[in-house]
C-alpha cells in the first residue's frame, strides 16, 4: 500500500472515530496537543501524524494502531483484556449488541460487589 493511500485510510478512520464519539475537532486537537488545522490535515490525509500522537489517539479511544493505519479492517481494541473473538464477518450491529450485553453484565456485577 502506498503512502498516499495509508494517509487517506488513516485520516478517514480517525475522523470516523472522532465523529462516532461526538467529539469536535477542537476538543480532539487539544487532547492530542496539536492545532485544529493540523488535525484537519491528518483527517484529510494531507499530513502524516507522528507516531507518538497516533499512540495517544489509539490509547484514548482504545483502538489498535493496525486498524488506524489500514493494516487490518476489523476495529479491534488496543487493550485486549477480556477479549472475545467473534467469527470473521460477524455483522457489526450484532457485535454491538454482544458488547452492550457484556457491559450490562459487567455493570450488574459491579453493583452487586459494591453492595456486599
List the helices and strands and how they pair.
Blueprint (H helix, E strand, L loop, with lengths): L2 H18 L4 H8 L3 H8 L7 H11 L3 H4 L23 H24 L1
Structural summary, described in words:
With 116 residues, the protein is mainly alpha-helical. The protein has two domains: 66 residues, 434 Repressor (Amino-terminal Domain) (Orthogonal Bundle), CATH 1.10.260; 33 residues, no CATH class. Helix content is 63%, strand content 0%. α2 packs across α3. The mean pLDDT is 87.
Summarize the model shown.
With 116 residues, the chain is an all-alpha fold. The protein has 6 helices and no strands.
Poorly predicted sequence stretches spanning 5 or more consecutive residues:
none
CATH topology of the largest domain: 434 Repressor (Amino-terminal Domain)
What's the main sheet like? none
Total number of beta strands: 0
What is the CATH superfamily classification of the largest domain?
lambda repressor-like DNA-binding domains
> Helix content range of the residues, please?
55-70%
- Rg: 17 Å
Architecture per CATH nomenclature, i.e. the level-2 architecture of the largest domain = Orthogonal Bundle
Instruction: Tell me the strand percentage band.
Output: under 5%
Q: How many helical stretches?
A: 6
Shape: globular
The level 1 CATH classification of the largest domain is Mainly Alpha
| N- to C-terminal distance | 54 Å
Which features characterize this protein?
mainly alpha, 116 residues
